[in-house]
Amino acid sequence: MTRRRFWQVFMMLCGFIIWAVQFTLIYGATSTTCALEVAETRLLGIGIVPAVIAAVTLAAFLCTAGVLTYALREHRRLQSGNAGVTDIFLSQAAILISAFSIAAIVWQGLPALILPACA
Amino acid sequence: MLAACSGVQSALNPAGGDSQHLYRLTVVMTVGGTLIFIGVTVLLLYAIYAPPERRAWLGTRRTIIYGGLAFPITTLSLLLPYGLIVMRDTDAPSPDALQIEVVGEQYWWRVRYPAEGGRPDFATANEVVLPVGRPVSFTLTAADVIHSFWIPNLGGKVDMIPGRANRLSFTAERTGVYRGVCAEFCGDQHARMAFDVIVLDPAEFDAWRAAQASGAQAPETPFLERGRTLFRTGGCGNCHAVRGTEADGQFGPDLTHVGSRRTIGAGQFPNNVGTLAGWIANTQHIKPGVRMPSYGMLSGEDLRAVAGYLESLK
Amino acid sequence: MNVPETQKSFGRDGSEFPNPLPRPKDELQKLKRAWEPPRGLSFITAVNNTYVGQWYVGTAFLFFVLAGILSLIMRAQLAAPESDLVSHSLYNQLFTMHGTVMMFLFAVPAVEAASVYLLPNMQAARDLPFPRLSAYAFWAYFVGGLVFFTTIFFGLAPNSGWFMYPPLSSLKYSPADNADWWLLGIGFIEISAIAGAIEIIVGVMKTRAVGMSLDKMPIYSWAMLVFAAMIIVGFPAIILGTLLLELERAFDWPFFIAERGGDPLLWQHLFWFFGHPEVYIIFIPATGMVSMIVPAMAQTPLVGYRFIVLALVATGFLSFGLWVHHMFATGLPKMSLSFFSAASTAVAVPSGIQVFAWIATIASGRMNLTTPSLFIIGFLFIFTLGGLTGVMVAMAPFDWQAHDTYFIVAHLHYVLIGGMVFPLFAAFYYWVPVASTRALSECVGRWVFGLMFVGVNVTFFPMHITGLIGMPRRVYTYPVGMGWDELNLISTVGAFMIAAGVALFIYDMIRNFRPTLDDNAGNVWNAGTLEWLPNSNYGTRTIPVVKSREPLWDQPGLADDVDAGRYYLPGTVTGGRETLVTSPFDARPQYILQVPGPGWQPFLAAVFTAAFFLLLTVKAVILSAICGVLALGFVIWWLWETDLGPIRPPADIGGGLTVPVYVTGSMNHSWWAMIALMVVCGMIFTCLVFSYLFLWLVNPASWPPSGTVMPGFLPGSTAGGLYVASAILVAVASRHLRGDDRRSPSSVPLLLAGAVVLLATGSTLDLWTHWQTALSPSAHAYGAAVYGIIAFQILFVGTSVIMGLYTIARWLAGKLDSVRRATFDNTMLFWYYTVGQGTAGLLVVYGFPKLVGGA
After folding, report:
1. Label partner for C263 (CA 20 to 30 A): which of A95, B40, C607, C679?
2. pLDDT confidence of A86, banded at 50, 70, 90?
3. Which candidate, C410, C464, C457, C475, places its Cα nearest to that of C78?
4. Can you list the residues of chain C whose pLDDT is less than 50?
5. pLDDT of B2
């Protein structure tokens, strides 16, 4: 597997990798703060749990949006040149996957707006 | 056998605010799901049977984009917040709630009402009595394996896990008799682990509470007196408590007011002298695997005396 | 390395094919001889995918029937309230075994088995890259599975539910061996599933037809790739879970005992981290089958290929964020539950994408209503309904009502029967002509479908209502007068209809299934993919060049040209079994893989592995140990015959293409397999560290418990230093073992021996240090977790030591040099992994308590 291919596959899966990192971080943070009973801590007037979830979700959203932009640009570049079918396929997959990941990432952060932290 | 009428253990017959919320969610999703299901089926049949030129519009990537991406994402973006709001609004703790502690044991329920505002605490079993209209908060745990506490008419279920104390809050809003059941497989007699839930007017509830907190009734006839003696000499008090007597065992259900309960055997039989006698003599036959041995060696007369004594403990 | 940069295109008329006609007379003869299956009693030593695949599918189907019979007994018991047909103790074994056998012995093996048979055919490979590994996986599963099943006849079957929740499955509440049968029996069948998954990953990535680049891969290959990746990530959790629970049962290490700092919920996390992806692990290959069958039946290419690939990958990822939706009622914070609610919602989208892609494909073509089509339509109907109830239970508040009731029983059977059994039956009717001289009967098939379709709906639809009106799951009986009687009776009638359908299917198989090697019924559906090329035990005569997703439709005359020997590798260049390895993305020819042939070793190794675990269950420790050593011996004997080295110079496979018959390094197939194995091991270790941290969160105030003597940093860092030093020695040995001149310097065994000593010393020092502090593994979950990490490391050090000694032995036998070094590479990779894991373990054990301020 050449470095270029590795990078292409990574970019293709990147949306879901970001989702997985977001998921792990927000679930881990919620569980840990609730188990250690430090959820009352406040950051800038917001409870620490919603604050962390919001921050992580925002970061994940921005990263994935960046990946999507990159994939779109890459796709346009490949189509104008005479790139191989595999390259085009991988870039199309990257567009689809990062676009769908954005929906998953937003849903993942939604509970912070509605639910109490540790009840 | 228990002559319960259907609907006493049903999520489709809500008797409280929380279960009403859950019921509405159920209806909304069932109706929505049915419509989607019909839509998909119609499209599928259309794709198979419609003439090629008429179905051509369906055979493109557009179908996937609208049907498989846009539609579910839109629908689910509406459903998810609704579900989360129902989640926030149900099982929400309330500061003035009536506290009740329930411990799941193989295969019965230990119930304790802690002292509250001068009213003393007391223990009972296999029966939960609630005042209508007042929030209740259960503290749930298990003594041996995992059980799950579920009263479908009043709220969702919550697991009872050894080493953890879980909470369940709801408000009953209709008086009546309901049935709760163990919903997590807990061993041999998981199928026979239920309990009665009785929702009373506040005044009736207070009266019930006062009665339960008092000590056991003394036997009124020599026959019942004989039953109490047999209860003592038979060693029943090693496992069962009858407050006000020397019986103070803690392994099994508190029997101080066993005669006042609707059912015996953890929701298995209506409570009367006959079923009590049958239970004492054939425990291991009726509910094999429970901790209580069968007392088949008691003579018929003795059995009736013990059963009569227990039945008199109103 | 001679790798063509661009694909040539071949005209029908001509001379431009890689190999000219006529072919040398004895070429086909030699190919046939190389792939000659063993005859007589030794046919069980066959390892070829055509043999193993069919045995595997057949065995899985046998377990489907057996577990189905168990469910009929249960349905008979539940037909009426307060029934006495079976006792509670038998019933509890029945439902435990039904779930366990269906999930572990039917569903996962069935889809894996089907791919052992189909994948090489579909990709025009001669065989899977590790045929002996598939044979080993099959026999281990066959022997272990059958013995496991027979426990039901002796009342020894597990009876704590297929989910085996402690404390019910702990020693205190399940003192008999029943639970151990589950833990050891299933635990080791998981290992066989992982072996299969590694094989599938390498098979999909490396052994495809020339030119079958990622965008032209059959969807089934994509599905199997995602499936296998999910197995190697998901199954480690259950393997660790069973290890911990068995450690608790056997040695009283309290991982799950609340009084001593354990937590029953830890098991649930581990179980469902495997258990939920498991559902998709079963479902994804089935969707892959559907995506192959639908285009063939509608006679049109699949609409939305990229969308389906997206859906498969999305499902693969998202399904790992769902596990707590089986734990919605465990009292976790609502916020935590809601994350899983959101992910469970998200995973509905990929399923929707696939359903609409199939509908679009059907609409764009013309669906022939054959038996496979009927099963596909039935699948879409049943699965859509199951998917919609799936969205319902994804909403945690609704699940609080539905959880552990018959609503869930209905939902999961709709999803699994709809999502897996119907596609599998479609696949039977669709692919039998590849394996048999006759197709199955269309007429009987319609009846099979009708009975099963009506039966499934009659059985399971009423259960939605039964559940909502209060009937819990896993009850051996229910009281009169709850309003459940009629609904249960209807369900029972439906169950027997399904059984009638399955019985009719068996009849059809007996009447029409005639397995064959090279005389199959042919392309009866006019399908477009490569498994319909004429084939034999050696697969296709030549490895074709494909230029589209449906080469048989788009490349006229392909079947004849392939069979005539016009494409690549028309014979055997080494004289033995071989297959062409292509590059993972663009499928350019890379090298010729020398495929091992029949042998007793995998069979015997599997039988003794099974015996090792089964005897351990009944506590026959000495016999078990003997079998374990024998199993290890056979594995080593089997490996000894592999890694043949470049037994001839690079060979011409046609079209002026010369490829080597041996490569090493990252291009080698066993390198890929080793990387996959390292992912498995890394996941087990990750789950172990997760368990450690989880138990810390349960006991934040006593981590370690007061009175524990923490060892200083010196022993820990010394052990770490020894580990790293051993890795350096291996790295130096690797440097010495370079060059094209086939050197085998004597420094290599010496360095390896040094590395063995250092690694073993480091591990021993670690154990000894903790033993010195009098830390007890059974007093508190802290000790159990620490010794868990140490014991796991000892297991890996032990394996590395054996591998090191084996590699030294290869050197001594003259089977290791600077070119022929695949064995060394594998040992090296595993060594680095062991060192990495050991160092991480030391950091956790010595560092974490200090970090959180304990002791």
Report:
1. C679
2. confident
3. C475
4. 1-7, 855
5. 40
Look at residues B86, B265, B290 and name the one whose alpha carbon lies nearest to residue B189. B290
Which residue, among C207, C268, C260, has the nearest Cα to C237 in the 3D structure? Answer: C268
Which of B5, B37, B41, B64 to substitute to test the interface with C, most C CBs within 10 Å? Answer: B64
Asked if the bond preceding B178 is cis, omega within 30° of 0, the reply is no
Q: Residue A100: list chain B partners with CB under 8 A.
A: 69
C-alpha span between C544 and C566 (Å, rounded): 8
pLDDT at residue C494, rounded to an integer: 97
To the question of domain C46-512 being in CATH 1.20.210.10, the answer is yes
- B 273-292 residues inside an 8 A Cβ radius of C: 288-289
Domain coordinates in residue numbering, chain C: 46-512, 679-851
Say how many domains are in chain A. 1
Whether pLDDT at B4 is above 90: no
Residues of chain B with a CB closer than 8 angstroms to some CB in chain A: 69, 73, 76-77, 80-81, 84-85, 87-88, 92-93
CA distances, C23 to each of B230, C28, C515, C542, C653 (Å) = 100, 8, 29, 12, 13
* pLDDT value at residue B264: 94
CATH homologous superfamily of domain B98-212?
Cupredoxins -  blue copper proteins (2.60.40.420)
Q: How far does chain B reach from its first CA to its final CA, in angstroms?
A: 21
Whole-angstrom CA distances from A19 to A58, B46, C829 are 12, 37, 30
Determine which helix (DSSP H) or strand (DSSP E) holds C193, and give its type and residue range. helix C187-206
Quick check: do B98-212 and B222-312 share a fold? yes
Reported pTM: 0.95
Q: Is residue A1 part of a domain?
A: no
Of B46, B176, B182, B28, the residue nearest B105 (C-alpha)? B182
Cα–Cα distance for residue pair C765/C749, rounded to 1 Å: 24
Asked if residue A83 is part of any domain, the answer here is: yes
Residues in chain A closer than 8 A to B93 (CB atoms): 119
C644: Cα separation from own chain's centroid: 28
Q: Is residue A73 situated within a structural domain? A: yes
Residue among A92, A102, A107 with most chain B CBs within 10 A, to mutate? A107
Alpha helices in chain B (DSSP H): 17-49, 52-55, 61-63, 71-89, 202-213, 222-233, 273-286, 300-312
What local confidence, expressed as pLDDT, does residue B3 receive?
37
Q: Is B185's CB within 8 Å of C348's CB?
A: no
Q: What is the ipTM of this complex?
A: 0.96
User: d(Cα C407, Cα C735) in Å, to the nearest integer?
Assistant: 62
> What is the C-alpha separation between B242 and B265, in angstroms, rounded?
17
Neighbours of C177 (CB within 10 A): 16
C-alpha to C-alpha distance for C641 and C624, rounded to whole angstroms: 26
Please tell me the CATH code under which domain B222-312 is placed. 2.60.40.420
What's chain B's average pLDDT? 94
Domain boundaries, chain B: 17-89, 98-212, 222-312
Instruction: For residue C737, give both structure tokens.
Output: 């073992």
The residues facing B169 across adjacent strands are: B137
Looking at the partner chain, which of B69, B73, B93 has a beta carbon nearest the beta carbon of A119? B93
Q: d(Cα C380, Cα C389) in Å, to the nearest integer? A: 14
CA B102 to chain centre: 10
Q: Which domain holds residue A25?
A: 15-113
Q: Domain C679-851: give its CATH superfamily.
A: Cytochrome c oxidase, subunit III, four-helix bundle (1.20.120.80)
Q: Is A106 on the interface with C (CB under 8 A)?
A: no
Which chains would you list as touching A if contact means 3+ CB atom pairs under 8 Å? B, C
pLDDT given at position C256: 97
Rounded to an integer, what distance in angstroms lies between the CA atom of residue B230 and that of residue C262?
43
User: Going by DSSP bridges, is the β-strand pair B176-182/B147-150 parallel, antiparallel, or unpaired?
Assistant: antiparallel
| B277, two tokens | 């006698």
What span, in angstroms and rounded, lies between the C-alpha atoms of C488 and C490? 5
